[in-house]
Design a protein that fits this description.
Shape: elongated
Largest sheet: 6 strands, antiparallel
Distance between the termini: 118 Å
Length: about 325
């Protein structure tokens, strides 16, 4: 019995010692865990703070770039700046013009008021890739999507299934809505080409009537629309080139087997009136013209040699 008690006491003391060791380890682990968590927390907060500061610096840098670019467009600079606050910038240049640039809620330039002795002009500011553009005032409330293209006369807003093109031929904006559901299979560059052709047919009612109404040409079959020529694909696989005068009157039609690989400027030269007449008089094939640097060239096999028989500087 005494041996049993002794054994039990010994076991009890052993268990107590084990519990103490485990408790000590757990306590030590908890302390180390707290220290590790505290260190990680500090590092994480520091990293987030550092990234936030860098993001804020980057945004501020972009804002400054936008302002400098807008100043260049308005032909003012820092020395012309009279006042600046959270809502606007006020400039007064040497010519006596006062220019007030209003900011939006994000601090970006949104409208410009130009005052001189004769008139007051109000303009909406739009940026695309940090480049500023000025337009007559218009409302974006019914427009969805992001801006995907801008030039001095138009803005394209792209949504998933539609595009809104805002055209500015005068002070009154014209809104063109284009449904993209029918062109879902097209690549992105082909979608942009489709929008451009749709827009040009909308603007040029005479060409729209000729191609769409009279000749039943699909927009997808139109290769290029320019002021003096239009190219579209025929059902048999060749191409029809329509040549126009300065009044948009159809002057001549050509048929070519394929479209020559030329730059935009070179193509315009190839299908200009005088060049077309000369090429026809010589019996040269339009599709065989090639571009070499700043020239368009036509080569022929004469005997055993290949000779350039026509060369025109672009």
């Amino acid at each position: 019995m005494d041996n049993k008690k002794e054994a039990l006491n010994s076991a009890s003391e052993g268990m107590k010692g084990l519990v103490d060791i485990i408790s000590s380890k757990v306590s030590s682990g908890q302390s180390q865990g707290k220290e590790l968590f505290s260190s990680l927390s500090k590092n994480l907060k520091g990293s987030i703070s550092d990234k936030s500061e860098r993001a804020a610096d980057f945004i501020n840098s972009l804002k400054k770039d936008k302002i400098r670019n807008l100043e260049r467009l308005l032909k003012v600079d820092k020395k012309d700046l009279m006042a600046s606050n959270k809502k606007n910038f006020i400039y007064n240049n040497e010519s006596g013009k006062m220019i007030i640039v209003e900011k939006d809620i994000w601090g970006d330039p949104s409208t410009v008021t130009i005052k001189d002795s004769n008139k007051v002009e109000l303009r909406t500011v739009k940026f695309f890739k940090n480049r500023p553009y000025l337009f007559p005032p218009f409302s974006e409330k019914k427009i969805n999507g992001e801006i995907v293209f801008i030039n001095e006369k138009e803005i394209w807003y792209r949504n998933k299934n539609d595009v809104t093109v805002v055209l500015f031929d005068d002070e009154t904006p014209d809104f063109l809505n284009i449904n993209l559901k029918e062109v879902k299979g097209l690549k992105e560059k082909d979608v942009l080409s489709y929008i451009e052709k749709y827009k040009m047919l909308y603007v040029d009612k005479k060409l729209n009537n000729l191609l769409i109404t009279e000749r039943k040409i699909e927009i997808d079959d139109i290769f290029k629309i320019r002021s003096r020529y239009t190219i579209y694909k025929n059902d048999n696989g060749d191409y029809k080139v329509l040549l126009f005068d300065e009044f948009k009157t159809l002057e001549k039609e050509l048929v070519i087997k394929k479209i020559p690989e030329l730059s935009e400027t070179a193509m315009a030269l190839l299908f200009s009136k005088d060049i077309v007449e000369y090429i026809i008089s010589k019996g040269y094939a339009f599709e065989n013209f090639k571009q070499s640097g700043n020239y368009i060239e036509y080569w022929q096999d004469i005997g055993s040699n290949k000779i350039c028989v026509m060369r025109v500087k672009i």
